[in-house]
Amino acid sequence: MSVQVNERDGQLRTEPTRDRELLVRLRGVRKLFPITRGILFQKRVGSVHAVDGVDLDIYKGETLGLVGETGCGKSTLARVLMRLYDASDGSIEFEGRDITGVGGRELRALRRDMQMIFQDPYASLNPRKTIGSIIGTPFRLHRIVPRNKIKSEVQQLMELVGLNPEHYNRYPHEFSGGQRQRIGVARALALRPKLILCDEPVSALDVSIQAQVLNLLEDLQEEFNLTYLFIAHDLSVVKHVSDRVAVMYLGKIVEMAVGSTLYLNPKHPYSGALLSAVPIADPDLAAARKRIILEGDVPSPIDPPSGCRFHPRCPNAQFPKCSEDEPELLPHHPGQVAACHFPLEDRAIIETPAGG
Amino acid sequence: MTVPLLEVRDLRVRFPTEDGVVKAVDGVSFSIEPGETLGVVGESGSGKSVSFLTIMGLTRSRTAIIEGEVLFKGEDLLRMTNDDIQEVRGSQISMIFQDPMTSLHPFYRVGVQISESIRTHQKVSKQEGMEQAVEMLHRVGIPRPEERARQYPHEFSGGMRQRAMIAMALSLNPDLLIADEPTTALDVTVQAQILDLLARLKQEFNAAIVIITHDLGVVAEHCDQIQVMYAGKIVESGNRHDVYYDSHHPYTWGLLSSIPRMDEAAVGERLKPIKGLPPSLIFLPPGCAFHPRCPHRFDRCEREVPALIPSDGHHASACHLSLADKERIFKEQVMARS
Question: B-chain residues within 8 Å CB-CB of A215?
Answer without folding.
Answer: 270-271, 273
